[in-house]
Amino acid sequence: MDIKTDPWYVHAGLYLVIAVLTILLVKLAIIDPHDYVESEKYYKTESRLRMTNLKEAQMLWERKNGNYSGNLDALIEFIISDPYVDSVVNSFDSLIMKPANPFKALSNGEFVPDSLRWSPKSHSVYVLQIDTAVVIDTVINRRGKITRVDTTINFGTRYYLEDLDGYGTVGSLDTDALKNTASWE
What we know:
The chain has helices at about 10-65, 70-80, 85-90, and strands at about 90-95, 100, 125-140, 145-160, 170. It is an alpha+beta fold. It has one domain. The strands form 2 sheets. Strands 3-4-5 form a 3-stranded antiparallel beta sheet, with helices on one face. It has a two-stranded antiparallel ribbon with strand order 1-2. β4 (about 145-160) and β5 form a beta hairpin. The longest helix has about 60 residues, at about 10-65. The protein is elongated, with a radius of gyration of 29 Å.
């Protein structure tokens, strides 16, 4: 009986296929998931820092104007150019002996107000909504006739900020208990 063996190049080719498949498996099972987890961690941290800074800007807006802003562009412009914000950012808290700057530096170490508009992952604009309440009051005289209808519109007593990538929300339109509260706190 004559046993035939395969030529050496068939074995070399099979070893090469095994090596390539092993490298591909290591890349797909170990390296790529690690990179994905690291990028998701960065996006979550960065998005939450931006939303925290927008929350601080809303609080400054409300302190100055008496209501919250429903316009993200106006809020960012307020951060950039308003003298009130500049005075708060450059002030010093003598009680705790630290600067009173309410804004936090982003992941790159800087605070860039123009970057607060977009979510870092998908570059979608954050959703910013404010509440609007219409109160209608009917005034009736002694004879039971309607003399006038008073309508009062209150807006901006609550706000809601949402990241469309799912990294969190700030505030609530429904209850004052969640005013200026982040979902991750």
